Structure formats: C-alpha cells, structure tokens
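Escalation from tier 1.

The customer reports that the assembly of three entities below gives different structure tokens on two consecutive runs. Tier 1 could not reproduce it. I'm attaching the input and our single run for tier 2 to review.
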Amino acid sequence: MRAFVALWKREVFSMLVSPFAFVLLGVWFLLNGMLFVVALSTQQVMADLRLLPPFLFGSGMLVWLLLPAFPPLLCIRLFAEEHRVGTLEPLLTAPIRDFAVVLAKYLAACVFFLLFWGGVLLLFLLLHWHGGNLDWARVLGGMLGAILVSFLFLATGLWASSWSSNLVLGAGGGAALNYLLLFVPALFELNEGPLGSVARSMHLPNFLDRGFSAGLLDSYALVYLLGLSALFLFLTWMRLVSRRWVP
Amino acid sequence: MIKTERLTKHYGTIHALSEVDLEVAPGEILGFLGPNGAGKSTTLRILSGYLPPTSGKASINGLDLMNESLAARRCTGYLPENFVAPSELRVSEYLRFRAALKGLSRKQVPAEVQRVAKHLGLEPRLRQPFSALSKGFRQRVGLADALLGDPPALLLDEPFSGLDPLQREEFRTILKNLAAAGKAILFSSHVLPEVEEIATRVLILHQGRSKAVGTLEDLQSHLHEKAKLCVRLSEAGTKAHEVLAAAAQELDFSFEEQNDKSFLIELNDHSHRSDLFQRLAAAKLPVIEFRELRPDLDQLFRSLVEETAT
Amino acid sequence: MSRRLRLGLLTMFAAACAIAFTVLLLYTFSRPGLRVRIDLSSTGTAGLSDRTVSALNQLPEGSRLTAFLFPEDDSFRWFNANVYPQAFDRITSLVEDARVQSGGKLETLVIDINSPMVAREREINRSQRKPGEAIVLESVDQRRVISFEDLFQILRANVNDSTPARIQRERVDTALGDAAVALASGSTLKAGIVTGYGQASATDPNGLLGLSQLLVRDNWEPIEIEGPADAVDCDLLIFVDQKQPFLPSDLKSMEDWLAADKAIMVALGPNASPAAAKQWNTLLKDRGTGFEPGLICEPIRSAAGMVEGRSDCAKLELNAERFSGQHPITIPLIEDNRLLLVIGARPVIFQSGTNDYTQERLLRTDPLAWADSQDPNGLVFSYDKNETRGIRSIAVATERWSPGKEGRMGRIVALGSAASLSAGLEFNRDFITSSLQWLGGDDRKSSGLIGLGERPFQPDRDSIARINNISVYGIPGVTFLIGLWVFWRRRR
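Tier 1 run:
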C-alpha cells in the first residue's frame, strides 16, 4: 500500500510540475472557453440556460472532438514516455505489484484530469456569478457524465500507452480507440435488430445527452463507463504482466 | 545470496544467455566480464526481476524470482545500465519517492535518504533536478537508489561507466565498504582493472555462455597450464644454456635466451616447475630469480575470447 | 508446450475472460430489474413519473416508441424562438428514460433531421407517421400517436411585436403515460360521431377531423355514424351542431341510450336547429340540462370602459374563475391555469333534474353576460331591454349519484358551442380532452402539464464581454502563467 501511495503521489506531483501537462491544460481551457462562448452566443442557450449542459457535455464538440483526444495525450507520459526515457526499468524492478503500478498511474491521471473539469466548472461558476440561473442538477449531472467518460478514455489511453515507447503511436492509438468507441455505436445506432440495440446501449453521447445532462443518473451508464474502464485497466495490467511472463 | 542455475534467455532465435550458473555469497563482489552483447545486462535484468528467463532458475536471498518476485525484489538494489531518473524531479524528491516505493515508512524515509546521500556524497546535490546533474552524479543517484532500504544484494550494471578516475576510485571504495558490510554484489564492467582491483571473484561471459568463473588466481592458474617462468642468473656463462637444453627434453619445456643472464621458459606441464628448479640448483647455477609470469585479467579475457573465436 | 507459448496463451486467456466478464456484467446490468435511474433535479421532474413508469412496465413485450424530432412549424422558429431545442431536449431525455424504465419492454428510437435519410424514411413509412406527430408508441397490433402540440402548450409568435413563440408548459411525461396505459390495456373505447343530421363530416379538415384525431390520441376509436340507431357497439355518442331533429327511430334509440345511462357529448351552437334543441331539452329534462336559445355575449373590457355592439362580444375568453372548481373535467384546467376561447355559444340549461342525477356547471359567463336574441336585422351584439344580464352556463355535466345499470354513470356533457369541437378546437383542446376522459370513465385529476422551468439569461453587454474574456483569455492565460512559474521555480 505504501508503494502504491508513493507512486500515486509521485505521478500526481510529476504532472503538476510538468510543463507539458500545463500546456495541455491551457489548451484544453482555451478550447473549452471558446466552445463556451460559442454556446453563449446562440439565442437558444441564452433564452434557456438549461440547454447549456447538453450543448457542452452531450452532443457538442467537447465530447465529439476534444474529449477523445486529450486523455491519451496525458497518458503517453505514464508508460510510453517512461519506456522511451528509461525510467520504467527502475520502476518495474522496485518491490511494487504490477497492478498497483497500473492503478496508481491511472488514479493519478484521473485526479489530474479533474483539474481539466475544474476549469470547465469555473466557466459555469462565472456564469452563475454574472446572474445566470443555472440548473445545477443538469450542470453537475452533465459534468459527472463527462468526467466518467474521460476516466474511460484515460483507461484506453493508458492501455495504448503500455504498448509502445513511440509517443505518437501511444497517443494516436489511444485517441483512435476513443473515437472508435464514440463513432462505431453512432454509426449503427439506427439499425434494426440486435445490432442497433447493442449500438444504442454503447452510445456514449446518448448517455450524456439524454441522461447525465438532463439530470438523470442511469445505473447502466455508470456500470458501462466504470466497467469498460476496469476492463482497459485489466488489459493494461495484462500487458505489463506479459512482459515478465512471456519471455 | 545471488544465485542462478542454468539460466537461459532467448530473444526469438537469438540466444542471449545459455545455461549460466553463478553464485554470489554475502560479502562477496562478483565481477561480471564480457564483451558487448555477451549477456551481462540480460543476466542482471533477469536477476532484477525486469525480464523473465526462458528457462533456468534465478534467486535472490533464496527467493525464486519467478515465484516470489516481489519478495526477491525487496532484497535487491539494482542499478540499471544508463540509469535515468524522471527529469522533472529533484534528487531528494526522487530518492524520497524510491524509498517510499521500497516500503519505508514516512518516518524512515528522510533518514534513509540522508544516509545514502551522505554515504555517496550527494548531499550538496539533493535540491538539484536530476536533469541538471553530471554523468557521475547521475550514477551516484542510481547507486543511492539501489542502496535505499539497505538491501542485502546489489546488482550493478556498468557502475563505472562515464565516471572520471577520481569518481571511480570513490566508487571502488564504496563498493568495497559495502561488501565488507556483508552485501552480495554482482556488477558488470568493461573496465578490467576495476574488476581486477575490487572483484573477489570474476565471471567471464561470452556469447551468452559462462567461459570462466573463480578468483583471479584460480583463473590464471587454470587457464595457464603452460607456466611461463623467468629465470635470471647472477653471472653469464654457457653452462646454464647446456643445463636447460639437457632438461628441456626430459621435463618437456622450451626456453628462450633473452640475454646471456636471463631465460624465458615455457613449461608444458605446470607441475614440472619444482623439478626444473632442483635441476638448476643441482647444477649449482647462480639463480637469483625464479619467477612464474602470471597473465593479468586483460590477457586472460583476451585469451578466452580468442579461444572462443577459434 | 513451451513456457513461452504457455504463458502467452495464459495472458490471452485472461484477457478474453476479462472481456467476457465485462460483456456479461453489462448485459446483466442492462436487465430491467437491475437498472435504476436517479433524478438529480430538485423538482423531481427530470425523469418520468411513477405513474408513467408503472404504465410502461405494463406494456406488452416488443413495444416500440419512435420519437420524430422534426421542426416542422416554421412559426416556432421565427424571431429565434427556442421552442424546438427545448422541446427536443425534453423529449429525448424522457424517451431515453422511458427505454430504461420500461423494463426492457420498450424499444426506443429517436429520429431527427440529422438521422440518415434511409433510416428516416423507413421509420416514417413503418410507423405511418404524419406531419405534426412527435411520438408514435406501438405494440404488435396497436399504435398510439402523440402530436407535438399535445405535448407542449405553446404561446405562438406575435408578428406585431416580433415576440418569438415559447413553450409555456409541457406534458411529455403524462402523454407518454397515457399512451402507455392505453397500449397496455389493449382495449379501445368507441366513440360514435353522429353526422346524419346535417353535421360536418369526421373526415373533413374544416369539420370534425380535428375532433376525430383528438379521439384517436386519447385512446378512443372514432366511428362516423348516421344516427343513434347505428350506435350498437359505441361507448360514447357525440353530437356536434345538429341541423335537424331526430327521426323517430333514432329518437327511440336515443331514449334507449339515455335509459341505459350511456355517455353522451352534445354540443349545440347558436346555429343548431331549434327543433333539435327542443328535442334535446325533452331528452335531457330528467338530467337537469338542455339548451336555451340565443347567442351569449359579454361586454368587452377596454381602456375606454365596457364596450358592446361588436361581434367580439360573442368571443368568450374564459379563465379559471369561470371554471367549476368541483368537477374532474375542470379541476385540471384550474390547476394548470388554462384559458379557453369559446366562439359563439348558446346558454346551456343548468337546473335540477330527477334526484338520480347531479349537475355541475362546468363553464360559465361573466355576470354581465346576456343571451343576444335575433333582431329583425340580425344579431346586434348589444344588450337590450328584452334580454337579461346574468351568469349563463356554457357547459354542464351531469351524472348519476351512484352507478346505474351495468355500473354505468350516465355521464353527459352538454356544451353550448359547436365551434369548440370543430374550428375552435385548437383553443379548447384541453377542455375537450378532459371531458372525453371523464366521459370514458377516467377521472384524471391532472392534465400533467408542468412548467418547463426556463432559465433565460439576459446579461448586459459588459457582463458578456467579461464572461467571454475570462473564458477565452483569463482561465487559459492564468494556466499558462502558472505553468511557466512552476517551470521557472523548478529550474532554480
């Protein structure tokens, strides 16, 4: 446990002092700020602020474009970068279990990614301080959904990062996987029969748009997001374990 | 303490290690010698738990590295070749993190970091980022990392690389002190004089195979069955040449006259040394030097490598 | 088997097991019994009500809900109106909730303008969707359609002052619940629309087509019949503006119908045949209701005082004060603060009948109203000496004190306006719907209309500029500066 906490702390600390992480954070805030301003410039949102959370967290560009790309970028430093630089070897020869390594790194990334959402929350608070009458159930529900989706994308990013010391492949692979998770169900969503049914039950923007952003917590959406995150963490662990298992 | 049995590692069709046996006892320093690609780093990586062997066994402190990897790793301090620490961390931050990673409690960590930093002369550098350190100090940080938690076994991969002569001297002293404190140390090196100076025993590895293992003296005697002798007389004369020529056939040796007072003798059978000495004494030759010429580690290494090549 | 192969297979097997376990977990948690939805909103109206959930759970297996989110009425988009975004947001979230809460019995599909053309056409054809219909709920052999206007109470755009249309209230949850109840019950009540006595046709868009469609949406099966004699299987008879009195055979059937305590909705406007009105008065005498002659008028309140003598005096704007607070038909209208517009009504008799029946005045006029009688020159829309001012009844409901034959209640709604069921249906839809439900035996207490909880944001120009600057420059800029500071501090 001590080793796990030590590694988690070190990972969080490394992110907090890493220029790359701050650049990522700044770009995220910039793009989100721009999306926020675009949303506020529409008559519909100004006429009813309840439409803002679905716009940002549901079917908007944040989910379709930014969210799949940023978590893998954050994750490349967790395995791919360590592998490339050579710091992975001292870590993996330390007396710490492989799963603790995976979990500590993942939880550190999750905690750091909360900062990303903290900035988005600031935008809503800004609106609140300027007299915006927000439906907080929708705002916080939408944000919770988006946070859980980003945790899933961090898990896929971590898995992709564990496969290669090539940073481009690590980040690109993770982002590609995330876009697949978004777009493939969307492509088959309107199909009839089991295919359409399965696609609808995997459609992330639907969870966000019709559930979380409407102020509704759906147990299935929670299980889906957390279950899939756990699966990718397990696969990352398998990947790490296989380095020792498979000669 | 550190032990391998028939340790083998294949990378696809490449045989990096073939049935290597070694053992390092507490207080012993085993020098690991071999040309590039001989399998030194692979052996150390297997022993550190980073790589799995294809077959064979490896253990630290009696703990099997495949079955009790975590416990074995707790007993090991490992300095990898080209050691690197995260560039964003300061030396103290890195060592504190590594100490905690090795299971030291929050109270123990500062004292332990202070101890190894003092031991390795890192105190003035503790607040510097790792990226700002010279190669020598980076190696010290790596060694400090290995020493954290006071593990009984140390695996050091090329610990002297990149160090200046003064630093090497310091490092040698440190390793000797550690061995004196009962640590089992296995280190690999290209710098033969370093190995010669501090290793209790030497293992020579070539093309993944163990070519020789033992104390330096054992190796010298084992490898040089044909003893080379230097015989020097106090005065010149033809008698010595005649006595040697007469004994040469009987005792199966050849000799070479270097000047009229000294001879270089190459005995085919090492055990005939005393017989030869008795012949010279019986002929009342004025022998002032009868010395066996032993090869140094460099020569030994070369001869072994050449032998394998032929 | 080599160690390499063995361990490689072991890794792959473990990964495959994990994937299989995840699929199983997701499958298990997608099952109805294990699926829970929690409403985070303070009002508890973000999701479906318990009533609707309960109705959805009774749906037959394989039911299907298709939502068509097409912005078809351009006037709802004029002046940047927000009607469709708000409406579609509400529909999609509740449709998703319906899918989850239906216990796996409901397959849902949302078709909007971004859906692929092929899928859009396929669903429109399959569900026989017509313009204006927003939700189609289907089981194997039945379907219920909910129009967009049934779901939302919309204040239309005002072209004069460029005011955009806006949603006042919505009843998506209730409408879904009603449709689900109807679909689950599987039975449909039959309403006979009598058209053999000069009434408009039930298929005529200018006649009773609107009423017919309203009946369908409210779980009735409308049947156009010539006269009461044809109403063999009907549960309700509807008479709208009868131009001739009944023939003897139909009169007999009518007497039988009344004697059997079956339900009737009769709307006779000022233009109905006096002979027919007289016949009805005879038929309904025991019930304490009937129709008086004349056209109800009220003075118009204006800045200049009370105005009379204009045709607008016959347009009766009825607010909650004019509704009965005691009757299931009008209670929901009062609760929802609805307004009705009755154009051209005759007074309805409201008096005591036999002791077997109760009477309730559903809609009434202002105390200054009068029944304008025909002058030789036609209607003058002004009060004269021959007329009396006072409260007039516009609609009356009667029913038995206690259930009669076969448990029937003998419910009748008498309405003094025929236009409210034809051309003016749009202004009285809620009243008619509520009346039909009462006549059908469903004493619903609420129309289900709820406020949308709009949250408009109208900041001043400075606030907008400040929000924009902080969002785009402030927060990212501070982040970059903190990053630089940390970088500089760490390099020291």
